[in-house]
# Entry
Amino acid sequence: MQNQTITTHTLHDSNNEISIVIAICGDAFPSSMGGCRVLPLECSMPKMQEAAIKLAQAMFDKNSLYDLPLNGGKTVISFAPNMREEAFKTLGLFIDSLNGKYVTGLDLGTTQSDMQIVGSCTEYVAEDCVDATAQGIVDSIKVIGKNKYQTNTLKNLNVAVQGLGKVGLKVALQLFKAGANITACDVNIKNINSFIAEANGTIVEPEQIYDIPTDIFCPCAIGNVLNTNTVPRIQASTILGAANNQLESPDIAKLLTQRGIQYIPAELVNSGGVLFAGYRYLGLSISETQVKLKSIPELLERYLKLAKSSGYSNPLECLAKLRVGFAKKHAYESA
# Structure
């Protein structure tokens, strides 16, 4: 990512134990967009700022890759267990005070009920976009099936899904219904029960998911799950998932390449949510927005061709080349 302007807006209410950080990456457009993530109450303000900035940068990368005219944004929030409703009312008022500079939505730890509370205090709340995020991941896995496994069907494809939250559950269920063999994990028993109520699959302990022999490892929970401890254990030939900031550091991409594991950068495939919510916020109809979502598998196809022509070199370098090529193409088409 090129150097971009980072702006943070912080609020700390010590009396009610509510802390909020909103980070905005980029200043080319009037508004930014990104979800609201709940962090533990014990998380310090510096740590919250660090997390918000990193997540906002990831949103900027997604938006710029797909030419979505919104800056990157993200909220992280922490609160005492008995202050949830008050926390999201406070967040709504805080967002409203920014006068449209930031639009929020769902992320880890937040629910539609939370967003309804936020929406009672501000208009700057995105539509539910979980289905679109999941659609982008499933469509991308279909592309990998066609290109790597020479199959137009997901039947008997083995996928290990890490995290059965809002997006991970929908991904796992769609893959299962399409005939894939699913191994999954989650730290929340309710999420696991939601999966096994609708699908047959193998449930493992969260720490075991890295050791499962599988075709595709699909991280759909927290970030930094690909690191020097987990990468040597991974038994997948491809990594493709919805989680943001999957790599602990850029060097991990090189380590995956050395192991012969195909890594698909997250921002290439997990942008369905922000594309849907972003274009809806900008005034497109649902049908027009669905057309925009088709750009995810299309851009992945272009990435795979570029990676093949460069000998499957460092995936982050390949993504950078794709980003430059897309920018040149867009500049030519806009001239």
Q: What stands out?
A: Residues 45-65 form the longest helix (21 residues). The chain has two domains: 6-126, 131-271+300-323. The longest strand covers residues 71-79.
